Amino acid sequence: MKKIVKWLFALAALITVGTAQSHHVQAADSSRLTTIKQRGYLTVGLSADYAPLEFHATVNGDDTIVGADVSLAKKIAKDAGVKLQIKEMGFDALIGALKTGKVDMVISGMSKTPERAKQVNFSEPYMYEKQIVVIRKSDKSKYKNVADFSGATVGAQKQTTQEAIAKAQLPGAKITSLQKANDVVAQVSYNKLDAGVMSSIIAGAYVQKNKSLMMIDPHFATEASPTVVALPKGDTALTAQVNATIKDMKAKKQWAKYLDEAYTLQNQSTGFWAKYGSFFIKGAINTFVFALLTVIAGTVLGTFLALMRRSKLWVLKAIAVVYIEFIRGTPLMVQAFIVFFGTQVLGISLSAFTAGAIAMGINSGAYVAEIIRSGLNSVPEGQTEAARSLGLSANKTLQYVVLPQAVKNIWPALGNEFVTDIKESSVLSVIGATELMFEGSTVQGASFQPFFPMMIVALIYFAMTFLLTRVLGLVERRFN
Question: What would the pLDDT profile of 16-32 be if each residue is shown by its tens digit?
């Protein structure tokens, strides 16, 4: 009991020290530029679903994030005398990543807004984007100005300037907020939405590929939005460095060149599979690795939690119950965000892949614990009594008599949990973990085909789960 109390106090002290160190670093880091130069690389956060500013393309056979914003990021890194590192995640996670130190700056077609200005610094604008509406050509006569959208369903990317404009300037319209820009286009294209509010430069790329769509100017009251680099709040030195690069880029008129290079990559004429096949293969491999790690971590953790819950020590039982109920009562997506950003607050920098694997292991452990506990409870008490009467210790009885029978009883439920793990990894795309769903969504944005990439993703998921189900069934028959 005393050891447990000491352990809890030690853990609390560690968390307190870690948090204090993190806050100290944030307070002392008035110039992150110094840190960047010392370590030799600049970390830029973006959401690569925004062609031609940032998107995935196959370059020399490799999946590469390219675009005009990426070219700007490269110039900023070069001017600072460091290398460039890109971290990709959902657009709505970028400000959080910047504030917690996951990234040094955000270059992702971000507009300057008063709400964001309270959280971060902004560079000088490097581009101005006019906001327009994407509609189907068949509705050309139906929508001409903002008043025409009353009663219409209109989409916009979540936490963007377009979302704010749609909500404020389309009276009577039903606004639907979506994760990615290609989601907006897809739903307009397939009659799920009547229209989508988008940046003109982004919408132009989609309309060029999809001949059933068109852009209209509904005459929003808002002028063209300045596109800026988001930087740590109060960091004047890094802001000045970025502004100097943007000023130099404008003087040399390089932005138009960056856009032309992006359009060239965007319009590569290679076949679909040659261009995007590696994306699906990479996503499938990572999904399998996630599932494998989750199965191992979930089984080990779940076994310990199940035994703790059956323990006669109330402290162990209480810890297990609280853990299981909390994890089962919160979504995996929330847990992934907590692990990804929470560890950063404690001074621990985890990659999206590592944070995702930990989150899934933690999540699976709670469910596996209940499965194992039910299996242990299903073994008749007489089995334990018989083993003990033959002289087996409590541990030996559990190891050689109870657990083997419990595993046989719970195998179908345990196998179902393993299959579920493969599909649930798709949630991790929100923190930038490159699993199958993330790669499929990437191909959607890069290819401007909303439906076909998802069909390939579905078939790969089915193949993986079908094969695993067959293997689990074979093991179950061997048990029988």
Answer: 444 444 443 344 345 78
